[in-house]
Amino acid sequence: MKMIKYQQLLPSLYRFEDTCHVYVICEQDSAIAIDFGSGQWMDQARGLGLPPITDVYLTHHHADQCSGLVSHGKRRFKVHAPKGTEAFLKPHHVATFWKSRNSAGIPASYHVLPNGVTGITFDMFAGSDQFWGTRRIRFMPAPGHGGVHSLNILMDHQGKQVIFCGDSAHAGATLYQPYCLEWDHWTDSGAQGALEAVTRLLDVKIDLLCPSHGPVIDQKQRPLLRQLQSKLHKFIRSKGSICAGEPDRYLEPSLMPCGARQLSEHLYQFGDNGYLLVGENNEALLIDPFSRDMPALEKLLDNLGDLRITAATATHCHADHIDAMPAVKKKHQLTMWLHPLVAHAVANMHELDIPWKVTKPIYPDQMQPNKGYWKWNRYRFKVAHFPGQTWWHCGLMTEIDGQKILFAGDSFQPASRWKGTGGYCSMNGARFKQGFEKSAQLVLDWKPNILACGHGTYYRFAPSQFKKIIQWSRQTDKAIKALCPTKILKRDYDLHHFKI
Length: 500
Description:
By secondary structure, this protein is α/β, with parallel strands linked by helices. The chain has 2 domains: about 230 residues, Ribonuclease Z/Hydroxyacylglutathione hydrolase-like (Metallo-beta-lactamase, Chain A, 4-Layer Sandwich); about 240 residues, Ribonuclease Z/Hydroxyacylglutathione hydrolase-like (Metallo-beta-lactamase, Chain A), CATH 3.60.15. Helix content is about 25%, strand content about 25%. An 8-stranded mixed beta sheet has the order 13-14-15-16-17-18-19-20. A 7-stranded mixed beta sheet has the order 1-2-3-4-5-6-7, with no helix packed on it. Helix 5 runs antiparallel to helix 6 and helix 6 packs antiparallel against helix 12. The relative contact order is 0.09.
């Protein structure tokens, strides 16, 4: 059995360094625990002669807080959890969670046990109390890292006010695993929750702040929390517009009878994400085929007459830009071309924990260069890695009807649309200096006339927009690093740990 480090913080108050810190408060003949970890700490507690545990209180549902409860099925203690965390702890809810986890973008939680835990009572409510004998246990709202239902726990002990803050705060005015604040792929809702939790902590007197990870904070708690407040404000701003103040510069297309939009003589946009480029000899190239767009594609082909789709490609790995690729290949007998990073993501979709995955692996017929030129029909495309909304993304630019057109997928939008981007989050492989900034600089270097992006968006290039994106990217990189306990994104923020 692994030896668990422990520390006596106050008389009858112990901290055990398990998968998370477990705090044990003792009375003469009984004790309670805040969080449970792997449970290995219990042997250590018995060896110290501590009284038996009667109750365990979970600050939040993450696996590192409670994994050991699975092997403690026959318990002599009661387990309490925040109301609302049933969705991530009750076995039948957990089965539903895992069944649908990657089907609709970002999951509702990043750290859920494989099968859940039986025998938990969900009776902890924000702002309410429970009593352990005559001792009051108060629950404070702590949305953020552990989701919307997380709680901080306040108790008086040995004349001091002690708060067990889960992952609401960490030493150094940082946050453990700040990617857990990304409740979705682009808004600031999780960060706003974390800010609320910190603000609530500042509302009360704290003698000892006891987090789930990192050292106990036994002095200068208020300056630390104010500094964390400031850092969270900067993180929230990073979730705002990436090019504030820029006009949209939308290109006005010609509307076709079938509902498609003609951007120039040989380029058409249809459905949500699809583009069709017409070349010589009645050949066509399909870009970003999405299954929901296929009826619109068929109407466009009927409208255009004698036209053969001979090749298809995709800007990135998300299902709504590539999932129809096998079907169109089979129907049109075309050649499927993909950038190596896009190909890697869709071929290895079972190994990558990313959002909007295809349901089955896709394997290209031919590879485009990682960087360089690719020729189809009469068109010569510039090709490059184009990370932003997702790491597994490429950019493709060619001249069409006298205009340089950059097929730019979902990384950039006009300022009024989704704050100027398709969003950023760790689960999508977000990078800033090596991601958004790299791609914005590529746009500045390539100087396209028009960006043909996803979700029916096409607009004129302006250097001012992408210069602002570079500044936003640098500020965002600093804002997230400031929240990381090690200041290293790869260690604290990255869910994938892929090589750059």
